[in-house]
Amino acid sequence: MRFLKTLSVFVGTIIGVGIFGLPYVASKAGFLVVIFYFLAMSFIAIVIHLLFGKVALGTETLYRLPGFVGEYMGSNWKKITLLIIGSGLIGALLAYLIVGGKFLELLLIPYFGGNNIIYTLLFFAAGAYLILRGIKQISQVELYLLIVFFAILIGIFAKAVPFIDFSNFQKTDLSFITLPYGVVLFALWGSSLIPELEEMLGKDAKKLLKWVIAFGIPMAAITYLFFVFMILGVTGPNTSKEGISGLAITLGNGVIRLGFIFGVITTFTSFIALGLTFKKMLWYDFKLSPNLSWSIACFTPLILFFLGLKEFISVIGLTGAVSLGFEAIITVFLYRAFLNKKLSQKMNPLLYALPVLFIFGVFFEIYYLIARV
Question: What is the DSSP string of 149-205?
Fold first, then answer.
């Protein structure tokens, strides 16, 4: 049961707001292009997560990534890592807040009225409360919400099957070849949760952590591709940026309401788990008080939201390619430092190819953003 709960937290955290941007990028670049990205990036993500897992398991002190970097690479790299990881987590939490609040608004406003600000604050308050309570409360919520998540996904698919047009999968546009990179990377990433998984698994962590990673990332990837297949098959070139609303014309408002519930669940589970990760990173690695750490983790994305940062495709693309790309690069060199300092071993030279890949990914995303301006 411990393994199942831990796996549910991992998968539930990975499957977040990124799922809603995937059908749109698939409609632009092509379904086959997105499949290629998932095959390649799933393998790379598993490798990076396993490297970080080995560092976490091989270190007695309970850190988050900046703490491990400080232990093995020095205080300056620790500060740089905080900036990178903090930016990535804030970007992710902001994206969850933007879309989660919007879905909650669309779901409830026909019954209770109100506006986007009210429902965003409700979404935020519920998430902030669970982040304050801690990982045990989250693990209980994640398991049941993940079951509901898959039940809803299957329900929407059953309604969508008669309307799927296979010609929608034939288009490939190489002018958008780099578009899916940042969104797919964002969608698959969950390395910041590795210390939480180790904490949840307890004495079984050395035996089970690698299996949580090995099962969790492919499960998320398959779920994403299933969702893309369903949405793209129905809406084709008319796929909306957030995926769900484009189904309204074909499937009707009843299915759309189910989709809004689906959206609230996916964003909420990730919001609470990543918020807790950010809180504990500030608490454990930088010795801030628990309440101050909670306040920074929860209220920073809320402040950015009220400052007007509400374009979620741009947020997840930039966060995925840049912040998470640099996080992956740091993880590789952290693993090298860990092997050298802790085990007096050399890193496999093939792993040096990973930082090169992620640097190219940063340039891809920046090029795309500039091209859109």
Answer: HHHHHHHHHHHHGGG--GGGGS---GGGTTHHHHHHHHHH--GGGHHHHHHHHGGGH
